[in-house]
Amino acid sequence: MKKFGLYLLVLSSLLVSASATEQQPIAPPQEATQAPDRSQPIIATKPSPVASGNAASAPVGNTTPLSPNAANSDTLKNTLNIVETIFKILAYILGSLWVYYNYFQGRMHKPRLEIKLTGGKLGEPFDKLVKLVVQAKNVGLSKIELKDEGTGIRIFMFDATKEVDNWVHVGTYPILTPYHHWVEPGETIEDSILITVEPGGYAAIKANLNLNSSKVTWKVAAIL
User: Fold this and answer.
1) What pLDDT digit, counting tens, does each position of 17-71 carry?
2) Three-state DSSP class for 143?
C-alpha cells in the first residue's frame, strides 16, 4: 500500500506540472525604449512617403513569432509523453498487485492447522476405557470451515496372535465437527472420545484422524 500511495503522488505531480506548462503564456520580448532628450530643441520634419512606408513595414525588434503549427506540435508531444508515463506507471502498479495477490496473499491466506492427537488408557476403576484427545489450532490468517463428510477418527487394535493384518479396525467415530463448524484465525478447538477395550485384549491402539475442510484435508496418525 505504501508503494501504491507513492505511485499516486508521482502521477499527480506529473499532471500538475504538465497543466502548469500548458497554461503559462509565452511573453514576447519587449523592445527597449529610450526616453527623449528634453535638452535638445525639437525640429519638425516632414516625413518622406518612402521612409514612412518602410518604417511601417519594418518588424519591431528581433522577435520571431512562433507559428501555430509549431506550438501545436510541442503541445502534442508533451501530451503524448504524459500519457506514456501514465500507462507505464499503471502497468507497473497492476503487475505489482498481481504478484502480491498470487504469491503473498496465496501463502498468507492458505488454510493451515496444527493438529495434535494424544490419548491413553485411564486408570482403575476405568481401566477398560481409552481416551483420545484431538486439538486443532488455526495458525493461518483465514477462517477454516470444517465439513462433516470425510471427517472422523478410525480406531485400530493390534492383534499379536495374527501373523498378517495385525491392525484390526474396531470402529470409526465422529470428532470435532459435531461441535465445531469452523475455526477462526488463532483459535484452538478440542474434542475427545472414549473407547472401550478389554484388559489385555490388545497390544497397542492406532488412531487415524481425517479432518476435512472445504479446501484441504488433514491426516494425522498416532499409536498409543
Assistant:
1) 555 554 455 455 555 455 555 555 555 455 555 444 444 444 555 555 556 676 6
2) coil
Q: Strand 205-212 and strand 188-196: pairing?
A: unpaired
Compute the average pLDDT of residues 117-125.
84
- Round to whole Å and give the CA distance between 107 and 143: 14
Q: What pLDDT score does 73 carry?
A: 78
Q: What is the pLDDT of residues 65-110, one digit of tens each?
A: 556 676 677 788 888 889 889 988 988 898 888 777 766 665 667 8
CA-CA-CA-CA torsion sign (81, 82, 88, 91): negative
Q: Where along the chain do its domains lie?
A: 1-18+72-108, 113-223
Neighbours of 157 (CB within 10 A): 20
Quick count: other Cβ atoms within 10 Å of Cβ 130? 21
Whole-angstrom distance, CA of residue 133 vs CA of residue 120: 9
Class of domain 113-223: mainly beta
Extract the C-alpha cell encoding 219: 491426516
pTM of the model: 0.54
| Cβ–Cβ < 8 Å for 206, 158 | yes
Q: How many CB atoms lie within 10 A of CB 212?
A: 17
Alpha carbons 194 and 128: distance in angstroms, whole number: 10
Question: Do the Cβ atoms of 24 and 16 come closer than 8 Å?
Answer: no
Distance CA 117, CA 209 (A): 8
Cβ atoms of residues 174 and 151 within 8 Å: yes
Please check whether residue 216 is in contact with residue 115, taking contact to mean a CB–CB distance below 8 angstroms: no
